[in-house]
From TrEMBL:
Organism for this UniProt entry: Hoyosella altamirensis
Superkingdom of origin organism: Bacteria
EC number annotated for this UniProt entry: 1.13.12.16
Entry annotated with the keyword Metal-binding: no
Protein name from the UniProt record: Nitronate monooxygenase
Keyword tags: Flavoprotein, FMN, Monooxygenase, Oxidoreductase
Length: 332
């Protein structure tokens, strides 16, 4: 068993997290993650109203008796959702772990802390991670440039970002971006992280509530089949390469403003991809780690495989490399 500061602090068996994903972080997936011994997050804003979020938490509790959390992502929006009402729904639902992402969560922290809720904040830079620790979060999830969704504007890959964050923080660090298997888990632990966060890999599981066509496309895709949109707007997002994302990138190269692409990137169109399986209906998020994904297992199969293979890597392959005498096998 891989016991880390993260597993001990958050009361889970394995140092593996399924972070919040819009339209994906629903009860059936989160409960499967919890039952596997990992930590899953319901995505608050996937639910139409705060009242629906409370019901989704209750539905998840009917499927698992193990710890799970709720993600609250705070991002620029044409019509901002009622964040305070979603926050109150989280508190009233009795959830004890929250993942925040996007903007600084300082305005929400006092409410969560007063309710005895632990907060993991997702960051894309060391400077933001340091600030998150300073304002009182319990752990940081650090997102490398390889990730799906918003990687920030610094373009620092996980191999650099993870140890750089660890060098500056005293709270647990969860590595995110580019991780899809045991090798990524072991590498993250070697870099100083206390656990890993996976989005794309959990999206491509049997319990994931997205259309089968999406899962099969992730398996078929390589690490090169993503696009970076909104670069010209300083709000970069990594999404799957399809007709819509290519059009967005082309328009940005021509010097468009947001109003000229708003109809292409509307959230309702991305939701249609996940629900109907129409892969060119809109933009949809996926990370470069899709190039490492070759199957659609159950969540339990995925987590069990990752943990067992990680333990084997640590106790056998790496241990054997360390134990091998210098110059062994070299003729004198």
């Amino acid at each position: 068993m891989l016991s880390t500061r993260f597993t001990r602090a958050f009361g889970v068996e394995h140092p593996i997290v399924q972070g919040g994903m819009m339209w994906v972080g629903r009860a059936e997936l989160v409960a499967a993650v919890a039952n596997s011994g990992a930590l899953g997050f319901i995505t608050a804003l996937t639910q139409p109203t705060p009242e629906d979020l409370v019901k989704e938490v209750q539905r998840c509790r009917s499927l698992t008796d193990k710890p799970f959390g709720v993600n609250l992502t705070i991002l620029p929006s044409i019509n901002p959702p009622p964040y305070a009402e979603y926050r109150q729904a989280i508190v009233e639902s009795g959830v004890k772990i929250v993942e925040t992402a996007g903007f600084n969560p300082a305005d929400h922290l006092p409410f969560f802390k007063d309710a005895g809720i632990q907060v993991i904040h997702k960051c894309t830079s060391v400077r933001h991670a340091i600030k998150a620790e300073r304002i009182g979060v319990d752990a940081v999830s650090i997102d490398g440039f390889e990730c799906a969704g918003h990687p920030g504007e610094d373009d620092v890959p996980a191999l650099i970002l993870i140890p750089a964050a660890v060098n500056h923080l005293t709270i647990p660090v969860v590595a995110s971006g580019g991780i899809a298997d045991a090798r990524g888990l072991v590498a993250a632990l070697a870099l100083g992280a206390d656990g890993v966060n996976m989005g794309t890999r959990f999206m491509c599981t049997a319990e994931s509530p997205v259309a089968q066509q999406v899962k099969e496309q992730i398996v078929a895709n390589t690490e090169r089949d993503t696009e970076l949109i909104f670069r010209s707007l300083r709000n970069t997002a990594r999404v799957a390469r399809n007709e819509v994302s290519r059009e967005v990138v082309a328009k940005e190269k021509e010097g468009c403003d947001f109003t000229e692409i708003a109809h292409l990137v509307a959230g309702a169109r991305g939701r249609k991809v996940f629900e109907d399986g129409d892969l060119d209906a809109g933009i949809w998020t996926t990370g470069q780690c899709q190039g490492l994904i070759n199957d659609i297992p159950t969540v339990d199969e995925l987590v069990s495989r990752m943990v067992s293979e990680a333990e084997a890597l640590i106790s056998r392959r790496l241990a054997e490399m360390v134990a091998e005498p210098v110059g062994a096998g070299v003729p004198r």
